[in-house]
Amino acid sequence: MRIVLLGAPGSGKGTQGEMLTAHYGIPRLSTGDALRAAVREGTPLGRKAQAVMEAGQLVDDAIVVGIVEARLDESDASDGFILDGFPRNIGQARTLDHLLDSKQRAPIDLALHLDVPVHEVVARLVKRGIEEGRCDDNEDTIRQRLGVYMAETHPLLDYYAGQGKLVTVPGSGTVTAIFGALTRAIDAHCAPVASA
Ligand code: AP5
């Protein structure tokens, strides 16, 4: 099962991605988490990414593609994975499709879109910024990230709809109810792994 999670900043991709990983036993790769770890560790990549992330812009495609490719090559991702925060633009989506194809890996099965009204994601992220102090959760950066999402990432809904892989799930409500809707969508679209 190879799943892409789509949605605006604060739509719940990380929250639901972690629950889906536990439920289906497949790894989740969050490019945001990987980049934040690099920033914390002060690696050359992290130093390069930090200012871009704090400005609410997208990090270079080549950097994030490198992170994703390395992770997908790990053995635990061979039977499936959940991508959270990647792809983020049409170029990354095409690269992902080519990457899987060139490695003779099965293509993406499903793109799940968490649909949450803008006012709600802004409220969630402002709250998280106050409670957790994440550097890109101040109101100016949140607005910037939402603008980048609409310009760069939102077109991916049409990209995956065109491949017949898009399912939109309302992302407002309780975490448990949203998780139930996501698992129903996955179970309906992804064939179960055959038992030995
Ligand atoms: P990334 O970490 O991917 O940020 P994001 O998409 O803005 O996502 P968030 O983590 O803010 O939100 P989320 O949708 O995961 O929601 P969450 O579950 O956390 O990327 C950060 C930056 O890295 C980017 O801006 C960019 O610079 C760079 N980057 C990353 N990937 C890249 C790529 N592919 N290419 C280029 N650059 C890249 O929930 C948010 C909050 O809401 C939490 O506090 C949570 O507790 C709360 N919440 C969740 N669900 C609910 C609910 N149902 N009701 C109420 N509250 C809820």
Automatic annotation (TrEMBL):
Keyword annotations for this protein?
Answer: ATP-binding, Cytoplasm, Kinase, Nucleotide biosynthesis, Nucleotide-binding, Transferase
- Which portions of the sequence form the region NMP? 30-59
Lineage: superkingdom: Bacteria
> Which GO MF terms does the UniProt record name?
AMP kinase activity; ATP binding
| Residues given in the record as ATP binding sites | G10, S11, G12, K13, G14, T15, R128, G173
| GO cellular component annotations of the record | cytoplasm
Q: What's its catalytic activity?
A: AMP + ATP = 2 ADP
Q: Cite a single Pfam family from the UniProt record.
A: ADK
GO biological process terms, semicolon-separated: AMP salvage
Tell me the protein's name: Adenylate kinase
Q: What is the lineage of its organism?
A: Bacteria, Pseudomonadati, Pseudomonadota, Gammaproteobacteria, Nevskiales
